[in-house]
Design brief:
The complex is a heterotrimer. Chain A contains 13 helices and 14 strands. Chain A is α/β, with parallel strands linked by helices. In chain A, the strands form three sheets. In chain A, strands 6-7-8-3-9-10 form a six-stranded mixed beta sheet, with helices on both faces. In chain A, strands 2-1-4-5 form a four-stranded antiparallel beta sheet, covered by helices on one side. Chain A has a four-stranded antiparallel beta sheet with strand order 12-13-11-14. In chain A, a hairpin with a 2-residue loop joins strand 1 and strand 2. Chain B has eleven helices and no strands. The longest helix of chain B has about 35 residues, at about 110-140. Chain B has one domain (about 5-35, about 65-250). By secondary structure, chain B is an all-alpha fold. By secondary structure, chain C is mainly alpha-helical. Chain C has one domain (about 15-65). In chain C, helix 1 runs antiparallel to helix 2 and helix 1 packs parallel to helix 3 (about 55-60). Chain C is elongated. The relative contact order of chain C is 0.16. Classes of the chains: A alpha/beta, B mainly alpha, C mainly alpha. Chains in contact: A-B, A-C, B-C. The interface between A and B is medium-sized, with 30 and 27 residues.
Chain lengths: ~325, ~250, ~70
């Protein structure tokens, strides 16, 4: 893993230096050091209460650190200066709006705050409504919006001025699978022109669009690396073996047999199939097939599973992400 | 004061669209009408219902009674409206995360607070002017025509009085996270002001003291004190705002 | 001036009261309107029988912002 640059370098869009936040006796964030390079999508992963929201609130200038610094483009967020310069777009995990406004009116006020006026603003608001899929709902009162529509509007207000830094707290949590896919694609499309820091507890979402991932737990940074590095480093290769119906009855016996195969570290039974963990996938694959053939086991499926972040997460935090969230 | 213009525009539209402005206009106008009517017909009602002896003891209504009724009724309703308008203004926005929505934009916290207080002031001013306009008409109709300038000045002094109570509640709304605490703050402020108002020397400098000056002006008389009480109450509003701003700048949203 | 003669003067007051009740009830019966305490009937009574102050209190504190 290449070492991260220091947080105050000019190619760093989002930086944290020993960022600490204490609420009474609870240490919500414990000396977070982070340097997010420009133009990438950076995922904040961790179970609820890991400190993701706290870190985002400190970066957005809404909360003040107990110790350390949060930096946007090298500017400390403590005095709200990055906000005043329009450097950040921020989306709350549960965005709320004045219910009497329409979606368009809200974006108009936000546009005015960014100094937009007239036809240029109208065009930008139209583009943004299109981008987040709210063109039809724009003239309606926000009071009648669903949770998913509010989250889309939240993304819209965050990206309206195409800020250099986007801080998105659980931006797809209220969306259905289809909406989730669309919005993640939208976020991915913003990378390059913006640096995106987004938090989630859904690993598949992070895996899909992040260039780099940080895993937090109990206010501490567990790891910070590219998705590929994480998988290579922490995910153990797994073979999935689904025998035919005749052999499902003797699954345990089969598992015992396969435990003896070269490179196998563990065999897990369940749901009529076996999961074989190995530390030597190149050798284990052929050996497994040979063992299965020797015992004349009929197969429905035999595959090497793509390693997933779920496993990495499980190994690092000792908890399943979904269970912990 | 970054972002004051757009935020003020939003707050003023909010007063209209949530029907707050409309309801304040109607309620104030209604009390503006009711006050001279009550002054005129309450004695007649008593005379009609009571024995002759008691009826003769009831003095005939005067123009001054109409002005007193106006200051009492519109004043009481106005204080209620001022507290209701201000209690949720900042506290509810903080609670709902709406403050965070706008304050991560190029908008300073001072501008955010000022936009809110100005919008509350605008609604109270509109209500007071509506009450003053119909109150003037009805008083002229039922009693005698009073000097326009003096009556209008009474309306403005009443507005300033209400603004002090609104500002006190607004401070509570900024300090607290709940609008009920803010309302309690406003009511406590009201009690404190009433206490100070009862003191001999300083009483006429309190918001209530503005009513005395307004009464005199409406009736075409020279008020005992005018500039001092006006300056004191204006300064109070500004001071309260500065304290609210100072506190809000340090808050986490 | 008798009470009969004063009726034209009192009518605007009644009109304002009715407008206020109308606005409040119209707002209360919006399908997307949620109210404090959840019971719209209670607020309906406050509006109708609360004279001028009932609608004022409803419109200022009775409504639950979405």
């Amino acid at each position: 893993m290449p070492p991260l640059p220091p947080a105050d370098r000019t190619d760093v869009a989002i930086g944290c230096e020993g960022l600490t936040k204490r609420f009474g006796t609870v240490l919500a964030l414990d000396g977070l050091d982070l340097a997010v390079p420009r133009g990438i999508v950076f995922g904040f992963l961790g179970p609820n209460g890991a400190g993701k929201t706290t870190a985002l609130r400190l970066l957005s200038g809404l909360a003040h650190p107990t110790a350390g610094r949060a930096l946007i483009d090298g500017i400390s967020t403590a005095a709200g200066e990055p906000n005043r310069r329009g450097l950040i777009g921020y989306l709350d995990q549960n965005p709320r709006f004045p219910g009497w406004m329409t979606g368009r009116e809200l974006l108009d006020v936000v546009g005015q705050l960014y100094g937009m006026r007239g036809a240029a603003m109208r065009q930008r608001v139209d583009e943004t409504l299109e981008l987040v899929g709210l063109s039809d709902a724009a003239p309606r009162r926000i009071a009648g919006y669903s949770g998913g529509m509010r989250q889309r509007l939240g993304l819209g207000q965050a990206v309206l001025n195409r800020p250099p830094v986007l801080l998105l707290d659980e931006p797809v949590s209220a969306l259905d699978p289809e909406g989730r896919h669309d919005v993640l694609a939208t976020i991915r499309g913003l990378a390059g022109s913006s640096t995106v820091l987004f938090s989630t507890h859904i690993l598949a979402d992070a895996e899909r669009i992040c260039d780099r991932i940080a895993i937090l737990d109990h206010g501490r940074l567990l790891t910070d690396a590219t998705v590929g590095e994480l998988l290579e480093r922490y995910a153990q290769p797994v073979y999935r073996i689904e025998p035919d119906a005749r052999h499902v009855a003797v699954l345990s016996a089969l598992a015992d047999t396969l435990r003896g195969v070269r490179g196998v570290t563990d065999v897990i039974e369940g749901h009529g199939e076996l999961r074989v963990l190995t530390n030597d996938p190149e050798a284990t694959g052929p050996a497994l097939l040979a063992a299965l053939a020797a015992h004349r086991v009929g197969l429905v499926a035999f595959e090497r599973l793509r390693p997933s972040l779920e496993e990495v997460f499980l190994r690092l935090t000792g908890r399943g992400a979904e269970a912990a969230a | 004061m970054t972002g004051l213009g757009p935020l003020l525009g939003k707050e003023l539209r909010e007063q209209w669209r949530t029907k707050r402005l409309l309801v304040v206009l109607i309620v104030f106008a209604a009390f503006g009408i009711a006050s001279p009517l009550l002054a005129k017909y309450t004695p007649e009602l008593i005379r009609a219902l009571a024995s002759d002896e008691l009826a003769n003891a009831v003095p005939p209504p005067t123009t001054a009674d109409a002005v007193d009724q106006f200051l009492k009724n519109v004043g009481q309703t106005g204080v209620l409206a001022a507290i209701l308008l201000a209690m949720g203004s900042v506290a509810l926005d903080k609670e709902r995360g709406i403050a965070a929505l706008f304050l991560t934009k190029p908008a300073s916290r001072g501008a955010y607070l000022l936009a809110k207080l100005l919008a509350i002031a605008a609604t109270l001013l509109a209500g007071t002017l509506a009450a003053t306009a119909v109150g003037y008409g009805y008083t002229g109709w039922l009693f005698e025509t009073l000097p326009v300038g003096g009556y209008a000045a009474m309306g403005l002094l009443l507005f300033l009085q209400l603004l002090v109570y609104a500002a006190l509640t607004f401070l509570g709304s900024t300090l607290a996270r709940s609008s009920l605490v803010a309302a309690a703050f406003g009511i406590a402020g009201l009690a404190l002001v009433a206490f100070i108002g009862a003191l001999p020397a300083v009483g006429s400098y309190t918001p209530g003291g503005l009513s005395e000056a307004g009464r005199a002006l409406a009736l075409g008389q020279q008020p005992e004190r005018l500039i001092g009480p006006v300056a004191t109450n204006l300064a109070t509003v500004i001071a309260i705002f500065v304290v609210a701003w100072w506190a809000f700048r340090r808050q986490e949203l | 001036m008798t009470l009969q003669e004063a009726l034209p003067l009192i009518l605007p007051l009644l009109a304002l009261q009715l407008i206020l009740i109308g606005i409040s009830l119209w707002d209360l019966t919006r399908p997307d309107r949620r109210v404090k305490g959840g019971n719209k009937w209670v607020w309906g009574l406050v509006i109708v029988f609360g004279e001028l102050i009932g609608p004022l209190v409803y419109l200022f504190v009775g409504r639950e912002e979405s």
